[in-house]
Design brief:
This protein is of the alpha+beta class. The protein is 30% helix and 31% strand. It has a 4-stranded antiparallel beta sheet, with no helix packed on it.
């Protein structure tokens, strides 16, 4: 019988475990590089429905106030919304994904 300095094969098991971890990381890296949407397929749908807004509230010396918001939709539409102490008003300003220069005649 030969004398073995590693009777439980710990070194061999550790190397196998390390190679398994490296292989798993390599597979994940390849998947993310080839198709980043695989792990979150609904992320594009959520981005398609995203809305962002920036607002401002101003109070005048006579005590009245004014609210105005700029709303950005992910389809490119931009709206101005404001409260004039009676009702909310809305106006479409532009579409930042469309042409921004007027057509030349």
């Amino acid at each position: 019988m030969t004398e073995n300095g590693d009777p439980l094969n710990i070194k061999k098991n550790f190397i196998a475990l390390a190679l398994l971890v490296v292989a798993i990381l390599l597979i994940i890296d390849v998947i993310l590089r080839v198709s980043p949407g695989v792990l979150r397929p609904d992320s594009e749908e959520k981005a398609a429905q995203a809305i962002s807004a920036v607002g401002h509230h101003h109070e005048f010396e006579n005590g009245s106030s004014f609210y105005i918001y700029t709303i950005f939709e992910s389809d490119g539409d931009v709206y101005q919304c404001w409260w004039d102490q009676k009702q909310w008003n809305q106006k479409k300003v532009t579409n930042y994904k469309g042409p921004t220069l007027p057509h030349a005649e």
